[in-house]
Specification:
434 Repressor (Amino-terminal Domain); three-stranded antiparallel β-sheet; 2 domains; alpha+beta
């Protein structure tokens, strides 16, 4: 069975990169890459995942499939709904209910079949895998 740690380590070595070389090329701190390869970090932010995928010459979904997404399992639906309302009301500085890091929020504007504007609040944590996909 492939793990996130093994996957990143194998891809890095296939490309002949050191941990420091991967860090420089991806702009991801050496300590974060070390934690990933040692299995001490089981998930990463969207930005980190994209940066590593680009340098490791793989797709982001290949990395994401190996991450352990435990964040959304412990957050109550009431908290999620509360966060959605805060996002729609323009609240800033929201914190992740799982780890306390900053939430990156946005409101997607879509139109239904009758051409009515429908707003969808979205958010993801800047550090852990928590996300709101409305």
């Amino acid at each position: 069975m492939n793990t996130l740690a093994k996957f990143i380590n194998n891809k890095r070595e296939e490309l002949g990169l050191t941990i420091k070389g991967l860090s420089i090329a991806s702009n991801v701190p050496v300590t974060e890459i070390e934690e990933l390869e040692e299995g001490r970090q089981l998930f990463m932010s969207v930005t980190t995942r994209q940066a590593l995928a680009k340098v490791l010459k793989c797709e982001t979904h290949e990395i994401k499939a190996l991450e352990k997404d435990i964040a959304n399992e412990i957050i109550s639906p009431e908290i999620i709904e509360s966060l959605k309302q805060l996002i729609l009301n323009g609240a800033g500085g929201l914190k992740c209910p799982k780890c306390g890091a900053s939430l990156v929020t946005k409101i997607e504007k879509m139109y239904d079949l009758e051409d009515n504007l429908v707003l969808h609040p979205k958010a993801h944590c800047s550090k852990c895998p928590f996300q709101i996909l409305s």
